[in-house]
Design goal:
This protein is mainly α and 302 residues long. The protein contains 15 helices and eight strands. Helix 2 crosses helix 3 and helix 13 packs parallel to helix 15.
């Protein structure tokens, strides 16, 4: 330490301000400040500035903020941690970035990623990915109760090649491979969907009703109609009158006819759009009403 530094240190110990030291020694203020900085760095004098809470690397708050930023925490979580506002957290991040560079505040790749981040990396939806990872036992909950998965597990072939991730499916009708637009999609196009529906409906109507291919109150109705004795003089009703008598909609009554549960006959005098009108037995409509009421009572009782 030279003579000038000794004089500055002595005056500073006596309580002189930096400006007063410059005036007393008749030197520039910048020279006094440079000398004091050197003395502080050497440990000869103490700094009069308090320890910077957010930008000093020795500060625990600084280390905690950097750790949270690198782990991917947002400004709201940092503010909640230190009891400050989101805007104040942003200002602290900017101070650290300007002093130490962009890299120190950028998030680092963590060994665990959340379910939403994993879905974003794989280019799929979180819901099917959650089901897939849970089936394979790769999904875990962290200390905050959030579902996470190891980043290295996302590279497994059982994950990357699964249809939930590749979003590729085989059409149930034509066998063509296509990319899924939503999870419930089974066919590649609207044409295949309509053709599949028509084929399924035709198979249903071609088959004879039985206990095996009927369910719910339709099966009870079919069994009751098998035991039903037709009256000697049967009354025949149109679709509208039959619907009013049994309490079902015309579409439901027509479905029972197409399903061959009901026995109908074409009218010889009534036509609709060039086709004969179908007539329904009135006694069967009464049986439908009774079965429907019994089914409703059983459902309310249960």
């Amino acid at each position: 330490m030279n003579s000038f530094q000794s004089q500055v240190a002595k005056l500073r110990a006596q309580g002189y301000t930096n400006k007063a030291i410059a005036d007393k020694l008749k030197v520039s203020f910048s020279r006094v400040m440079e000398t004091i900085s050197e003395l502080v760095a050497e440990g000869e004098v103490d700094s009069r500035w308090p320890q910077t809470r957010w930008t000093d690397k020795r500060s625990k708050d600084f280390q905690r903020v950097v750790q949270m930023l690198q782990s991917g925490s947002n400004l709201a979580e940092i503010g909640e941690e230190f009891g400050i506002s989101r805007e104040r957290a942003r200002q602290i991040r900017e101070k650290i970035r300007k002093r130490y560079g962009d890299r120190i505040v950028q998030p680092r790749k963590q060994p665990y990623v959340t379910l939403r981040e994993a879905a974003r990396e794989l280019g799929t939806e979180p819901s099917p990915l959650q089901k897939l990872l849970r089936e394979q036992g790769l999904l875990k909950k962290n200390s905050r109760g959030i579902w996470v998965v190891l980043r290295r597990d996302l590279k497994l072939k059982t994950v990357t090649r699964h249809p939930h991730v590749t979003q590729e499916q085989v059409c149930k009708y034509c066998g063509k491979t296509f990319r899924l637009k939503h999870r419930a999609q089974k066919v590649c196009s609207s044409q295949c969907n309509e053709a599949r529906r028509q084929a399924s409906r035709q198979r249903c109507f071609d088959s004879q009703p039985s206990e095996a291919n009927l369910a719910g109150w339709h099966k009870d109705l079919w069994l009751e109609l098998q035991r039903h004795r037709l009256p000697e003089q049967e009354e025949w009703l149109t679709l509208t009158r039959a619907s009013r008598r049994c309490g079902l909609t015309p579409i439901q009554v027509n479905w029972l006819r197409l399903r061959k549960v009901l026995h109908c006959k074409p009218s010889e005098t009534q036509f609709w759009r060039g086709q004969q009108v179908q007539l329904y037995r009135a006694s069967e409509m009464d049986v439908i009403r009774q079965c429907r009421e019994a089914y409703s009572e059983d459902k309310r009782a249960s």
